[in-house]
Design a protein that fits this description.
Radius of gyration of chain B: 23 Å
CATH superfamily of the largest domain in chain B: Sodium/glucose cotransporter
CATH topology of the largest domain in chain B: Sodium/glucose cotransporter
Pfam family, one (chain B): SSF
Number of domains of chain B: 2
Helix content of chain A: 55-70%
Distance between the termini of chain B: 52 Å
InterPro entries (chain B): Na/Glc_symporter_sf, Na/solute_symporter, Sodium:Solute_Symporter
CATH architecture of the largest domain in chain B: Up-down Bundle
Shape of chain A: elongated
Organism (chain A): Halobacillus karajensis
Largest sheet of chain B: none
Number of domains of chain A: 1
Protein name (chain A): Integral membrane protein
Largest sheet of chain A: 2 strands, antiparallel
CATH class of the largest domain in chain B: Mainly Alpha
Largest interface: A-B, 42 and 46 residues
Strand content of chain A: under 5%
Distance between the termini of chain A: 23 Å
Radius of gyration of chain A: 20 Å
Structural class of chain A: mainly alpha
Oligomer: heterodimer
Number of strands of chain A: 2
Number of strands of chain B: 0
Keywords (chain A): Membrane, Transmembrane, Transmembrane helix
Number of helices of chain B: 23
Shape of chain B: globular
Strand content of chain B: under 5%
Chain lengths: 85, 495
């Protein structure tokens, strides 16, 4: 069975998640005290930003892998054909 | 960059890097002798780059020697507020998701070689394509100029002035041109891989050395708590605005660099492209993150530097680390060689894309479409060479006035974004509106930059981009697009 073609830009839900992550990687929501608490020399707000950035990278990897399928299937078929010859 | 290394080890490492690059060029040439008859083979490596090589060649377009030399001083001055340099590199990959999937498909379908060719295909307008091509050439030219200056400064700094600035530039430019000519995109991508690995290794050694000899983040944080607590604090209002505009600006800006776009076409297949991007999404932690920590450690290691002095921070730290142990000494020599190699690798990508636009679009489409591919290639290479010659002269004899026209790059390159991205999805987008938008955006961004005028603290390029986008959208809605034209656009986009 053919998998449906997928293009990230057409999937609104993904961009809502990207929007939320974008909000989390911008330091607008921290109380001042987050600059005073240090963990291994890193202020707490910066740790939260790093964590949110990791989430963004992880989500990007997920989207790249599962929500971008335009040519892959055809290319794999072509590759198989070539291999069979 | 003043470095305490005696000249000879610096000279040795630079010669070694130069010879390896040449070796890569010659090997590529011997293995792929047929590439000089085909634009596809020469400029896109036959559309066959695998995950690793594609990844490193994308890496080279985003991270240059500047990331290593220029970012730690910013972290030194701004403190944790400069942590933004990590997420803004991740944003570039998010920006790619806006257009790379479709552009890859269309690139394959229409055998696109350059970003300018997409404009030709989509808008079928000589005016739009030529304007886009000129903007890219101009922006790329200035980008190249910046890299050439950096090569010269880096070489003379690394060798303690033993090799003068001019000799450094000429040496690396000759090597770069030779391996570029011999192997095209393949050479460029393979050398990018070598250069990327050298840079990563060096940066990690500098981080380890800094932690061992200066103390890690906790030591630095103690210092900041006592003397400059604002460097630890949560960014204030303007700080947050600056942070956010950097995220958006760098994300979109770096993704639409012409040499970055062109690499999409060079991928072997969709899966390869996706995997390379996926790795790129994690790299900011290992690159920008590491150089950020180095800058923060510098706050404690070399306190109280003025802005000018802090620009030398990486050199000071590397010299101090190098003097501690012979292993670190050689690691630091390798690092600085790697920094210069990284600048060369950015320069070669830019030069290759520059030549491809001449070969494929200006000469190959409008001046002499009947020419053989061999001839088109030759013209592109020669014009590229002439451009490099002119840029070297500009670098040596900087003009006293109007120097600003050589600074414009990002402001111009970003102006192709609306036509490029909207054109992929919106059938109604009209070529006249795209032309008008691109031109207005360019003029506004350039005039603001040349006369050093800024508005509301938002970058000039972004003002140009906003107006450009407005003209594109409103213009397309106002100008009536004939049913035929809309249908034709739909057919080209074809999804």
């Amino acid at each position: 069975m053919d998998k449906p073609k997928r293009e990230p830009i057409k999937n609104g839900k993904l961009w809502i998640v990207f929007g939320v992550l974008l909000a989390f990687i911008t330091p607008w929501y921290f109380p001042t005290s987050f600059g005073e608490i240090l963990i291994y020399g890193i202020p707490l707000w910066a740790l939260v930003i790093i964590f949110a950035s990791l989430l963004l990278s992880a989500f990007l990897s997920y989207v790249l892998k599962y929500h971008w399928m335009l040519e892959e299937e055809e290319e794999e078929k072509e590759a198989e054909k070539k291999g069979a010859r | 960059m003043e470095l305490a290394f005696s000249g000879w080890s610096g000279i040795l490492i630079l010669l070694m890097y130069g010879l390896i690059m040449l070796g890569v060029g010659i090997t590529t040439y011997l293995r792929n002798r047929n590439i000089h008859q085909s634009l596809d083979e020469y400029y896109l490596g036959g559309r066959g780059l695998g995950v690793m090589v594609l990844f490193f060649t994308f890496f080279a377009t985003q991270y240059s020697g500047n990331t290593v030399i220029g970012y730690p001083p910013s972290a030194y001055r701004m403190g944790f507020e400069y942590l933004v340099s990590v997420p803004f590199f991740i944003m570039i990959i998010m920006a790619y998701l806006l257009f790379a999937p479709r552009l890859y498909s269309l690139g394959k379908k229409y055998k696109l070689v350059t970003p300018a060719q997409w404009f030709e295909k989509r808008f079928k307008s000589k005016a739009v394509t030529i304007l886009a091509a000129l903007l890219m050439l101009y922006g790329l030219g200035n980008y190249l100029l910046e890299q050439l200056v950096a090569i010269g400064q880096g070489v003379s700094g690394l060798t303690g002035g033993t090799i003068p600035y001019q000799v450094g530039v000429i040496f690396f430019v000759i090597i770069m041109v030779i391996y570029g000519w011999l192997g095209g995109m393949r050479s460029v991508a393979y050398t990018d891989t070598m250069q990327g690995i050298a840079l990563l290794f060096g940066v990690f050694m500098l981080l380890i050395g800094s932690i061992v000899y200066f103390g890690g983040l906790p030591t630095s944080a103690d210092y900041m708590q006592a003397y400059s607590p604002e460097k630890l604090g949560v960014p204030d209002g303007p700080g947050v605005v600056n942070w956010f505009s950097l995220l958006v600006l760098i994300g979109i800006g770096a993704a639409v660099y012409p040499h970055a776009i062109q690499r999409i076409f060079a991928a072997k297949n969709e899966r390869t492209l996706k995997r390379s991007f996926s790795r790129m999404a994690w790299m900011p932690f290992l690159t920008a993150g590491v150089v950020f920590i180095i800058g923060i450690i510098g706050i404690n290691a070399f306190p109280g530097l003025s802005t000018g002095e802090s620009e030398q921070l990486v050199g000071m730290m590397a010299s101090a680390v190098a003097s501690q142990h012979v292993v670190f000494y050689w690691a630091m020599v390798l690092l600085f060689g790697g920094v210069i190699a990284a600048i060369v690798s950015t320069a070669d990508s830019v030069l290759l894309t520059f030549s491809s636009i001449i070969s494929n679009d200006l000469y190959g489409t409008y001046i002499n479409p009947e020419a053989s591919q061999h001839k088109k290639l030759l013209v592109g290479k020669l014009v590229g060479l002439v451009a490099v010659g002119i840029l070297i002269l500009v670098a040596w004899f900087p003009p006293g006035t109007l120097y600003q026209i050589f600074v414009l790059k990002f402001e111009l390159l970003i102006q192709i974004a609306p036509g490029l991205i909207l054109g992929l999805y919106w059938n109604r987008l009209h070529s006249k509106a795209v032309f008008a938008g691109m031109l207005t955006g360019t003029i506004i961004a350039s005039v603001m930059t040349i006369f050093d005028y800024s508005l509301l603290g938002v970058a000039n390029g972004l003002w140009g981009l906003l107006i450009n986008l407005g003209v594109c959208v409103i213009g397309s809605l106002v100008v009536s697009v004939s049913v035929g034209e809309e249908k034709e656009a739909k057919q080209v986009i074809g999804m």
